[in-house]
């Protein structure tokens, strides 16, 4: 027996289609039914590769007693946070206000009349354990509270609504008194401290923080921190650590330790796009570590073999868990990626195993449940013989060599994973939906890596994905966020607009760096058109900045938020404001600069009091204060664009003043025409640090 979610496009929602719980998808019909029957809403939010979401689905959501009580006393609604980040953002903030922490699965109880939350939590076990009550106990207590404590319920909801509205409006206090240069210094020091290695806890990539510190290092702030060392170490942790798949390429989500050894094994497209761009920027900034180039090259290999649709777009994610054999009842975390020592002794010669043990964390006892996660022990170039050994491990995992594998088949669900005749190990399930925002992060990473490493193939892969979005994600003149099997779905949100405009601008710059002016012009034209739509539907005239969702797609939200906090991905407004500055330079349209100024003013209060929350807004401020455009010929641009110039855009021109090689303009002011490479470089360096 299936429920309504059997018709859903989302892999995450379909995973719950056979639950005995009578799930509804989020929408007008579900909300109206809850109001008509006066049923409190149980809203459960998660995503397909979330481990504890999967656990709760197999436990509480599959239990007949839970389902019987839930169906009689609540209106249960399931939401895929990757489809509706705007809904997730509101109720995640509510959870954090109630408990001081967040995470997924996100389970929230709402009053049906106004959709205001009155209780929230994450994972609820079926029976009482881990210091948590059993889920049925929670449901019974909350239904009793909803029926009998009406006054307290109304007071609780009033406090929550006021808190959410206050957070959304972001009233400015004394922020105007804080100098912008001091804001940049404070943000650099704060983010450098956050990135400094710790001695406990999980280790996340935190790329928006790394990017900010890397770019602001050039301003030479006086501090007890060594910013250059910190960003380099973050790159080494990523490229050498167990978070990176040294055999198949691609980065896992995070590690569960402070040593970057054992990952949570899911692979998310958004992480990989950001990390590729970060490592390319580190290289271009002068940290030419061979491990960075290898990590990028093999991540692109993973992307093309495992994560690229025939149409050219990129899939969303791969699960952490996989089956060890077709008859296994449940998948195991990391099974596709880890190595038993006995297995390595069979696959490799004694000399090969000895060399592997010198370079990687390989022991008979292992480092993860008796098995080995490969982590490099030192930086530098891997030997040819070691690469041969890693190719043997690749063949064991995938059933063939990297050279003979063009496209690896993907399991779209557990049933496919268990029934397909895999030539090697059974892989993790791949979520094959296309998310514009995540594709955009990968496009940006590829575009930057293409010019830094002079790899035209990277740019071709990026351009193909961008063209798919341009050709398939617009319906009746509106931009759409998702694509399922060539069907666009759900209107684009602010991160889709912001990240894709950035990707188009990055493609524009990369095309110039490859000497293709005509292609560059087309990318810029598309970016301008999309920015116009973004401004029309999501700009907040009253407050400044961009709302998370368009005005005609927000009727079912209790508050309209503007994303400014960086999480696993950058904030939409941070990227959007930087885009506006770049567009100003490339078009001379000062309206973009006006919007950028309004956006920064809108968020200045939170930048002043919570620098740790919003590094991308400080990146935007850096663009605003230090924006520079270099107008030159194609050959000069090709020589400069691989360098790390974080607030520079390039424009190809043919009518330079006589005897000059370039024009450098600092925002709205142009310097004297440069007549030599030395003079040009001096002007560029001065312009980059004038703030």
Description:
With about 700 residues, the protein is of the alpha+beta class. About 50% of the residues lie in helices and about 10% in strands. The chain has 25 helices and 20 strands. A 5-stranded mixed sheet has the order 1-3-2-4-5, sandwiched between helices. Strands 13, 14, 15 and 16 form a 4-stranded antiparallel sheet that branches. Strands 18-17-19-20 form a 4-stranded mixed sheet, sandwiched between helices. Helix 9 (about 205-215) packs antiparallel against helix 10, helix 10 packs across helix 12 (about 290-305) and helix 18 (about 455-470) packs antiparallel against helix 19 (about 495-515). The longest helix has 22 residues, at about 515-540. It is globular, with a radius of gyration of 26 Å. The protein starts with 10 loop residues before the first helix and ends with a helix. The model has no long low-confidence stretch (mean pLDDT about 95).
Shape: globular
Quote the average pLDDT.
Answer: 94
Total beta-strand segments: 20
> Could you estimate the helical fraction of the residues in percent?
40-55%
Strand percent estimate? 5-15%
Query: CA-to-CA gap between the ends?
Result: 64 Å
Name the assembly state: single chain
Main sheet attributes: strand count, strand direction, barrel closure:
5 strands, mixed
What's the arrangement of strands in the largest beta sheet?
Answer: 1-3-2-4-5
Topology:
Layout (H helix, E strand, L loop, with lengths): L10 H4 L9 E2 L2 H10 L3 E6 L4 H8 L5 H10 L1 E6 L4 H15 L6 E5 L6 E5 L13 H14 L1 H20 L10 H16 L11 H10 L10 H14 L13 E2 L7 E2 L2 E2 H16 L5 H17 L10 E2 L2 E2 L9 E2 L7 H7 L2 H10 L24 H15 L15 H6 L10 E2 L2 E2 H17 L3 H17 L1 E2 L2 E7 L2 E5 L2 H20 L3 H22 L33 H16 L2 H20 L5 H12 L1 E5 L1 H7 L7 E5 L9 E5 L2 E2 L6 H12 L3
Parallel strand pairs: 1-3, 2-3, 17-18
Antiparallel strand pairs: 2-4, 4-5, 6-7, 8-9, 9-12, 10-11, 13-15, 14-15, 15-16, 17-19, 19-20
Helix pairs in contact: 4-6, 8-9, 8-10, 8-23, 9-10, 9-11, 9-23, 10-11, 10-12, 11-12, 11-17, 17-18, 17-19, 18-19, 19-20, 19-21, 21-22, 21-23, 22-23
């Amino acid at each position: 027996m299936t429920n309504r979610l059997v018709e859903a496009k989302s892999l995450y929602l379909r995973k719950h289609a056979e639950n005995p719980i009578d799930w509804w998808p989020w929408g007008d019909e579900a909300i109206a039914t809850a109001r008509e029957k006066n049923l409190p809403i149980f809203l459960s939010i998660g995503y397909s590769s979330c481990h504890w979401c999967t656990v709760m689905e197999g436990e509480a959501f599959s239990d007949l007693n839970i389902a019987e009580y839930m169906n009689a006393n609540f209106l249960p609604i399931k939401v895929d946070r990757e489809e509706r980040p705007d809904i997730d953002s509101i109720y995640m903030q509510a959870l954090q206000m109630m408990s001081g922490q967040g995470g997924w699965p996100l389970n929230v109880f709402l009053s049906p009349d106004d959709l205001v939350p009155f209780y929230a939590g994450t994972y609820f076990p079926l029976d009482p354990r881990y210091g948590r009550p059993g889920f049925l106990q929670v449901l019974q207590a909350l239904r009793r509270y909803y029926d009998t404590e009406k006054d307290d319920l109304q007071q609780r909801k009033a406090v929550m609504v006021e808190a959410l509205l206050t957070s959304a409006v972001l009233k400015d206090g004394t922020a105007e008194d804080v100098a912008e240069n001091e804001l940049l210094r404070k943000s650099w020091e704060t983010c450098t401290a956050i990135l400094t290695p710790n001695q406990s806890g999980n280790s996340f990539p935190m790329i928006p923080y790394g990017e900010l510190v890397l770019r602001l290092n050039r301003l030479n702030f006086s501090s007890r921190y060594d910013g250059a060392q910190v960003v380099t170490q973050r790159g080494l942790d990523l490229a050498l650590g167990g978070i990176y798949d040294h055999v198949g390429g691609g980065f896992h989500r995070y590690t569960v330790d402070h040593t970057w050894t054992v990952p949570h094994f899911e692979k998310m497209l958004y992480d990989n796009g950001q990390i590729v761009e970060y490592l390319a920027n580190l290289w271009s900034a002068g940290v030419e570590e061979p491990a960075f180039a290898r990590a990028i090259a093999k991540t692109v290999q993973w992307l093309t073999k495992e994560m690229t649709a025939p149409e050219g777009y990129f899939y969303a994610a791969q699960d952490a868990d996989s089956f060890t054999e077709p008859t296994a009842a449940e998948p195991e975390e990391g099974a596709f990626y880890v190595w038993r020592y006995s297995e390595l002794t069979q696959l490799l010669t004694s000399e090969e195993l000895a060399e592997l043990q010198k370079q990687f964390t390989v022991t008979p006892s292992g480092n993860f449940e008796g098995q080995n996660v490969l982590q490099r022990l030192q930086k530098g170039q891997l030997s040819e013989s070691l690469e041969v050994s890693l190719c043997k491990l690749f063949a064991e995992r995938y059933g063939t060599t990297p050279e003979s594998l063009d496209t690896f088949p993907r399991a779209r669900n557990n049933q496919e994973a268990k029934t397909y005749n895999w030539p090697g190990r059974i892989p993790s399930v791949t979520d094959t939906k296309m998310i514009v925002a995540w594709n955009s992060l990968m496009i940006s990473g590829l575009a930057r890596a293409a010019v830094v490493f002079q790899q035209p193939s990277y740019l071709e892969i990026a351009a193909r994905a961008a063209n798919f979005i341009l050709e398939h994600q617009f319906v009746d003149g509106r931009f759409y966020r998702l694509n399922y099997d060539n069907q666009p779905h759900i209107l684009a949100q602010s991160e889709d607009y912001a990240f894709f405009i950035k990707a188009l601008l990055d493609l524009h710059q990369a095309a110039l760096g490859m000497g293709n002016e005509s292609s560059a012009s087309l990318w810029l034209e598309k970016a301008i058109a999309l920015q116009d739509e973004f401004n029309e539907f999501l700009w907040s005239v009253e407050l400044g900045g961009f709302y998370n969702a368009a005005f005609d797609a927000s009727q079912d939200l209790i508050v309209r938020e503007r994303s400014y906090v960086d999480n696993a991905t950058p904030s939409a407004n941070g990227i959007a404001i930087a885009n506006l500055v770049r567009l100003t330079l490339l078009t001379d349209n000062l309206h973009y600069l006006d919007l950028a100024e309004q956006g920064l003013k809108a968020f200045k209060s939170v930048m002043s009091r919570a620098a740790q929350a919003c590094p991308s807004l400080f990146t935007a401020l850096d663009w605003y204060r230090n924006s520079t455009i270099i107008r030159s010929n194609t050959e000069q641009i090709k020589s400069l664009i691989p360098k790390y110039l974080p607030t520079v855009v390039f424009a190809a021109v043919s009518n330079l003043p006589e005897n000059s090689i370039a024009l450098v303009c600092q925002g709205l002011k142009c310097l004297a025409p440069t007549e030599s490479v030395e003079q040009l470089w001096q002007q560029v360096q001065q312009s980059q640090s004038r703030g």
